[in-house]
Amino acid sequence: MEKSATLNFLKPPFFSFFFCEVRNQQDTYPAVRVSYSAGRVRASASRSHEAVREFVLKEFNAGRALKVIAGLQNFDAENVAAVVIAADKGGATHVDIACDPELVKLAVSLTDLPVCVSSVEPDAFVAAIESGAHMVEIGNYDSFYESGRVFSAAEVLELTRKTRELLPFVTLSVTIPHTLPLVDQVSLAEKLEAEGVDIIQTEGGTSASPASPGVQGLIEKASPTLAAAYSISKAVRIPVMCASGISAVTAPMACAAGAAGVGVGSAVNKLNDQLAMVAAVRSIADALSLGSSSHVSSVSAVAH
Fold first, then answer.
1. 239: phi > 0 → left, psi -120 to 50 → alpha, else beta; which?
2. Can you list the domains of the chain with their CATH numbers?
3. By Cβ atoms counted within 10 A, which residue in 27, 34, 150, 261 is the most buried?
4. Is the pLDDT of residue 254 over 90?
5. Are 135 and 56 in contact (CB under 8 A)?
6. Selected residue with higher pLDDT from 213 and 114
């Protein structure tokens, strides 16, 4: 089906339904709303910063984070909105979008989940935070690998230091490039922790070529990021998020390997049907035992 035909839920009255339902939940984290709903960052308001950090890190600290990733270079507002709604209705705990102020404003109008923005340009993070984003991510490099662009450990460290200089109080997640040998991934993670990074994200799905079908193939695809999550989580104290190639089959394995949560992207953002997007998120949330009756009823609401 054509995307324009399958995403009609974004037009009235469906779009209005989602907007109203989400905004009616705004008392859930009142401290966060005070700090960010108007799109302003108050550097002197340490209590507000701490409230936002607690809001963002709560599910990571509980070892039950599920971040749905729209894509670092996905600036299609319609698709991003669909992914955000799927994350919200499917039971995710975080949503990750491209670092664009207008997309941030759209995302925070559609969900009360923490909104993360991804980029490899630290300067771009400032406007996104001012527009309402709750955390930033250096990473989600998959779209660069297709063109042969890779990131060295030294470059990732430099991007991290510059981001910390610009945004010393904002929750910062950094992806470890899977192109590095595993021992170097661990070493980089330790250095990033020393630089004040809050979350380490692993990757590896793009480097795996499953030789088997079905469940075995899903495990083979996730094996590089699972290996990285296991090794890195043994070396650092901060939360590790296992992303890239993760499915409902391998999400629990990631947590068993030491990850504090998982990130999923193409398993959701490449789908053209809203119900399928919600169902994909829901299956992983259920695999992580994140289910709730409110989200089950939300899937029914999408159908109507």
1. beta
2. 3-303 (3.20.20.70)
3. 261
4. yes
5. yes
6. 114
